[in-house]
Amino acid sequence: MPHSNGRPRSDLTIRQLALTGFVLTLALVSALLLLPATASAQALKNTAGGPAFRINAGFDSRYRDGNWVPIQVTLHNDGPDFNGKVSINVPAPFSGAGNAATISKYQEAISLPTGAQKEVTLYVPFYFGTQGITQNITVDLLNTNGAKVSSQVSSLRSLGVNDIFIGILSDQTAGFGPLNALATSLPSQASSIITEPLNAATMPSIAAALKNFDLIVIDNFTTSSLNKEQLTALQNWVNQGGSLIVVGGPEWRNTLSPLPPSLLPVSITGTDTIPAGASLLPVGGPGKSGPQQSNVSDKAPSPVAVSVASPVAGSSVVHSSGSIPLLAQRQQGQGIICYLAFDPTLEPVTSWQGATTLWKGLLLRTLGDQLVATNLNTTTPKFSLYNNGNMDALLHTLFPSAFPATWLILVLLLGYVFVLGPARMLIIRWLKKRDWSWRIVLATILVFSLLCYGLALQEKGTSIISSSISVVQLDRPATNATAAHVTTYIGVFVPSQGDFQVHIPGNGLVQPSTNPNGFYTDRPRQQPTTILSSPNGTDADLQGVDIWTIRTLISQHDSQFKGGIIPHLTLQNNTLTGTVTNTLPYALSDAYVLMGSHYMALGNLAALQTKQVSISMLDNGSGQEMSLADQIASNNKVQPQYGPYNPYSGSSQTQTIQQRHMALLATLSGENAYYDCGTSPCRVAVKTITSNGVVVTTSNGVYSGGSPYQINGRDPLLLPGSSATLIGWADNLSAAAGNITINGNSAAREQEVVVQAPLDINYAGNINVPTDLVSSQLVDMQGDSNNLQTQFPGIYTMTTGSMTFEFTLPNIPNLHVTGLTISEPSNLAQVVTAMGQGSGPPIDANHLHVYLYNWQTRNWDSFTLANFSFSTNNTQPYIGPGGHVLAQFANQDSSLGTMVFSKPSLQLQGTISS
Fold first, then answer.
1. pLDDT (tens digit, 9 = 90+) per residue, 772-817?
2. Average confidence (pLDDT) over 340-346
3. By the 8 A CB rule, do 288 and 239 touch?
4. According to the model, what pLDDT value does residue 640 have?
5. All domains of the chain, ordered by start, with CATH?
6. Which one, of 644, 719, 640, 541, lies nearest residue 146 by Cα?
7. pTM score > 0.90 for this model?
C-alpha cells in the first residue's frame, strides 16, 4: 500500500538502509585508521630471589647538566638463570625534583647465568635545567616481560655554572694541591675547581660523555691501560672542542708513548734536566703580562727533570729553556692540546711558590672565557642536548603536505555514493527489477566496507615515512680514511595510532627531540620513548603515537669514512687558488668552498673528481657584512627570512631542492634558532647598523629581519681550526643514517646529508691573511668579577683591570711580515646598549690602553686605538718565538665608566720569498 506521500514504503526503507550504510562506512573508515598498530603485552609476575645490582651514576655522582652521563650498573646473580633489562627513566627537561614526568627510558638487555657477575654502562642524557642541585634518578631491573624485579634510586649533583670540572688521568693522587687551591685566585669568585680522578675503569668510551669535563689532564699515567675505544673517545672529544693537557717529565714514556700521534703537539726523544734559575712561566701569562708585572720572578728553585722534544707540524712552542720546549700547543680539530715538559706534581715544582700561577696560566690558555665572570642576566643560555637549532622545523619540510591516502579515501567515498545513487538506478531500470535495489545496497555496503578495511591495513603499514637530515663533520684525512662526527635528525611520520619501533643501525647515541621552547610541556600526554641498545643497533620504541603526527629522534655517532677531501690550495696576492679533490666513495652536489667571508660555488663534485678553485679575498662591499649562508642564498635568488620557524622558503611544503639546501645552511648558521651562542661564534640579534641607529629584537633574541651582524669570530659555517671549509650535499650516502626500519620494514624516505670538511692552505707571494686565520686566546687577566665580565662569548666589559691576548701567526716558511693591524668591532657599545645590557651606556674600546710586548727590549710598548684599530710596520720586535704576538688591553681609571670590547683580531700583511 502506498505511503501517504505517494512513495512506496520499500523505497524509503532502501534509502534508509543506504544512508545507514554510508554512515557506518564512514565510521568504519575512521575506526580502522585509528586502530592501534600493536597491542600492549601483559606483564607477568616477578620471580622471587635472583639478581641484585648496584649503580654508580656520573663521575662520583657529579655531571654537567645537559650532557650524556655514564651510569655504571654492576649486577650479580645468586639465583637461577636470569634474562632481562636494565632500565633508567629520564625526566623531561626542566622537570625539576618535584616533577616525575618522563621523556624517555634507556634500556640494555642483560643475561645473567647462575653465579655470574656483569657490569654494563648506559649513557643517558640528563637535563634538569638547574645548576648545582642534587637530583634523584631511578634504575630498574626488568624481566623479559617488562615487569620490575628490583629498583634503586641514585643521586646526581649537577655542577654549578661557574664550576671548572677537570678530569685527571694519573697513577698518583698527590701533587695536585696547587691546582685544587687555584679557585681562590681566579677572577671569578663564584668559580670552583673540581677535580675527578679517572682510570681505565671509569674513563668513558664515547666522546659525548667526556663533554662533562671542561679539561682533561694526563700526568704520570699508565696510558696503555686504556683500551682502543677509550683512546678513540679522547681523540674525538678533542676534535670536537675538548681541551687537553699532556705532561711529559721523567715518566713521559709511560704516559705519552701510547697516545695517538694526533694528541701530541711534540715528538719526544728523551729526558734532560734544566738548571736552577731557569724560567718556568711563559711571557704573557699570569705573573708576566703587562707593564706592571714584567719583573715578577719565575725561576725554578732547583734543577727540574724535563722531557726533550721537538714540535710537530701545526704546533707552536710557547715557552722554552734554551732549545728544549717547556710549553707547546696545537689546535687539533676544534679543540686544543697543551704539552708541558716538566711534571708540576713532582718536586721541586709542586712546592714552588709559582706552582699555582703555573696552573692558572694553563687553565687560562685552554679554557679562556670560561674563567671570566659571567653576567648571568645577559648571557644567552646554551642547551647542549635539546636545542637543535630548529632542525625539527626544517625536518618537517621533507614530509608531504597532505596525509597519505587522503585522495584514496575520497575516491572510495565518491564511488560508494555513485554506486548507491546513479549506478543503482541505472541497473534497476535496465533490468526492470525493483526488488534488486535492496540487494545492491547490501552488496555495496559489504564490498566497500571490505575495501575500507583493506585500505586501512595497507596504509597503516606502507604509508609510514622516515625522513632524515644528517650533518657530517669530517676531520683532516688520514691514511685512506677520514674520521667524522655524524649527527642525524630522524623524523617519523605515522598515519595511525599505536606503538612503533624504529631501528637505527650502528652504535650511536639516540634521544627523542623536544621543542627547545616548550621542552616537552606542549605534549604532556605523550608517552615516554624507550631506547634499547643492542649489538645490532638501537631500537627506539615510540609509545602511544597519535594519528598523523611526526616524531623526531636525534642520533649521533663517530665514524670512519673511506677517502676524504684533499686540498691543494694557495693564498697568493689576495687570491685563493688551487684544487680540491673528492676521494670519498660518493659524489657531492651543490658544493662550496668557504674562506673568511668569501666563497666559491663548485657545483657537483663527483667521486675522485678534482675541481679548480679561485676566490678573491678582497672585500668588494657587495655582501661581506652578510653571513655566508645569506650570501649564498642571495646569489641563488632565495630570499632570507629570520625567526625560529622561517626557513628560506615561504611554504614549508613546496620547497625545491635548492630552497631546502639554503634553509639548511641558514639553520646551521643559527639564523633560524632562538639561541645563537654556544660552541659557535656569537651572532648578536641585530640588524645592519645604519645612520638611524641599531634595530634589535630583545624579547627572545630572534632576528626581526635584515642581515645579522656577526661580532668577532668566524662564520658558523666555517669549521673551527681550519683555514677554509668545503660544504656540500652527499648523494646516496646511506652510511650517514643507515638503513632505518620501522616495525621491521623499510619506510619511504627523503634524506639530506650535508658534509663539512676542513681545508688547509699554503701561502705564496704577497699575502694579506684574514683575521679569522690568526688564532687568538686569552692568556691572562687581572681584576675581580665586579670589574671584569663577559656579556656574550668573546665580548667583555671592564671597569678596571687588564686582559692579555696571545695571537699565534700561521706557520708560513720564508715569511717576511710587513704589517700588523689589531682591531676591534666599531659597534659593540651600540649593540650592548640596544640589547639593554648594563646599568648605563658603555664606553667604546677606543678609550682602552693597549700594549704590545716587545720581544727585543722585553718591555710592553704602548699604542693608541684610533677608529678601533692600530697598525705598525715595525713588526719584528713584536713577533716572538713560535710566531706569538702579545697584546694587553687595560684600564685603571674607574671614573671613565664601563668599557666594552671583544677579543681583538689581528690582520697580517707580508711577502713570502722563494
1. 788 889 999 988 878 888 877 788 889 999 999 999 998 888 889 9
2. 97
3. no
4. 55
5. 9-33+405-462 (no CATH), 51-158 (2.60.40.10), 163-371 (3.40.50.880), 465-560 (2.60.40), 563-730+757-764 (no CATH), 774-912 (2.60.120.260)
6. 541
7. no
